[in-house]
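Appendix C reproduces, verbatim, an entry submitted by the partner laboratory led by Prof. M.T., so that reviewers can inspect both the input and the predicted structure.
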Amino acid sequence: MTAEQQAVAPRLTERSPSMTAAELAATLVPPRQFDTASFESYRPDPDYPSQAEALEKITAFAGSWAPAKSGGFFSRAKKAPAAKPGIYLDGGFGVGKTHLLAALWHAAPGPKYFGTFIEYTALVGALGFSEAVKLFHGARFIAIDEFELDDPGDTMLMTRFLGELVAGGTRLAATSNTPPNALGEGRFAAADFLREIQAIADRFDIVRIDGLDYRRRDIEGHAVAFGSDAELLSAVERRAAAGESITLDPFSELVEHLGSIHPSRYIKMIDGVDVIALSDVTPLLNQTDALRLVAFVDRVYDAQIRILASGTPLDEVFAGDMLNGGYRKKYLRATSRLIASASL
């Protein structure tokens, strides 16, 4: 980065935040775009009846927290069957699963937590298994967005972690992502999920949601990219002059810096930032770097931070065979979010 670029905006690579266990737990709430998410504000797509069915089922799940009504001493009313303590929403990108999960979180009693699979595994990795269980002990409800099966180690870690919490009375809700063009993959993912958590498998209701990715309904197929670093720098200057909190980093240096920070702290790294500018974006060839970027993009997207970039369009950053490999779902989700973040 030139001296001129350094003078225009601060750098994310200058941030190396630390966080306590309490601070990490405090970040486990729905993304701010879902601050007011409710069952009433969810709009099922009439072309996909499974969305309305999912809304009905998750609303019923939320109602099971209400205390049972007594029929009196002489009542002969039949006792309603006990509701399962977990619900699993299985479907493609952008069909409203996170909206429904956030609405359920808002309806749930506390203590309660909301995070992605990556956030929970990162937190357990940062604190250690025993400390993480202690931290979440007594939680009434835990929501896990984007449960993933592509890392057996993380999957089994979460299996054990959730098992400990369910045994203590915690209720769960989870979602998974299925690429829209992967026919039948969602159902197989649900089956894999159940096999992995066999100790609590019979406690989950599986709900399938079909539909189109709303993020791509009105967005072109590529993330917006500036034609040169000079054009990017000019845009950064204008936004900084307008009072926006904007950072500017060479893409390769940011990717390298992400490797020095635990993923659980990425959220604090972008605290207070309105716009992230990345110069000279190039395709990633190292899968470790690519997966770190996926985790970072999740935090950026949840915070609704806009991305400005020059070089390779960000939706083309996962190069080679990455989109055809075992982490395909992660890269497709990140690509969808990069297109949205570069188009906000």
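The two ends are 26 Å apart (CA to CA). Additional entries are available on request from the coordinating office.
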